Amino acid sequence: EVQLVESGGGLVQPGGSLRLSCAASAFTFSSYWMHWVRQAPGKGLVWVSRMSSDGSTTSHADSVKGRFTISRDNAKNTLYLQMNSLRAEDTAVYYCVRAKTGTRNAFDIWGQGTMVTVSS
Amino acid sequence: QSVLTQPPSASGTPGQRVTISCSGSSSNIGSNTVNWYQQLPGTAPKLLIYTNNQRPSGVPDRFSGSKSGTSASLAISGLQSEDEADYYCAAWDDSLNGVVFGGGTKLTVL
């Protein structure tokens, strides 16, 4: 079964750091653009970051630019999100998502999400 | 505020047809394709419509999408109780160089 499984979420103090991981299985991970999308409690979806299949191209939302870094290890079929200088407004469920082949941002596979809480 | 504008709520009775609108601008919907997602309570979102009007395999043909200019719509015909969910539109935005979502529409089946 095609699957994405996120891990690494938790409680962190403002200004702290966290690294999220997303393990992919049952598909050729290295062929797909991957993204992170987040959802604050009771709120809507917000795009965070994206990375090309070979890792050569990345982009981030303005709200996280300079603080978050997306990366991937195609040998390990894993996507990462390094989050630094965390703020209360970064509190959200973070989803790892796959972009459907032939599209730029049709997210056809979603992980179950990992909760990040930024609070003192 | 979200870049794409959706009504916060919509409702219908079983069997009815409902539509959900999504309004954007020339930098997003006006120049890129639109995708729609369904999020059932307590679950991750699911791709419902991609590239304006394409349905992934497994999505019933009761769901359809359309786009005109800087707006898009999701239509659900033969409404069923299991359609009660949040619905989000999304598109690439050339000015922001990223994906933008609508604020979501909560669909209630009366």
Automatic annotation (TrEMBL), chain B:
Pfam hit, one: V-set
SMART domains: IG (SM00409), IGv (SM00406)
UniProt subcellular location: Cell membrane; Secreted
Compositionally biased spans, kind Polar residues: 1-16
KW Glycosyltransferase (keyword) present: no
Keyword Disulfide bond: yes
Domain Ig-like: start-end pairs: 1-91
Record region (Disordered): 1-24
GO CC, one annotated term: plasma membrane
Entry keywords, A to Z: Adaptive immunity, Cell membrane, Disulfide bond, Immunity, Immunoglobulin, Immunoglobulin domain, Membrane, Secreted
GO biological process, one term: adaptive immune response
PANTHER family linked to this entry: IMMUNOGLOBULIN LIGHT CHAIN
Complexes and interactors: Immunoglobulins are composed of two identical heavy chains and two identical light chains; disulfide-linked.
Record protein name field: IG c537_light_IGLV1-44_IGLJ2
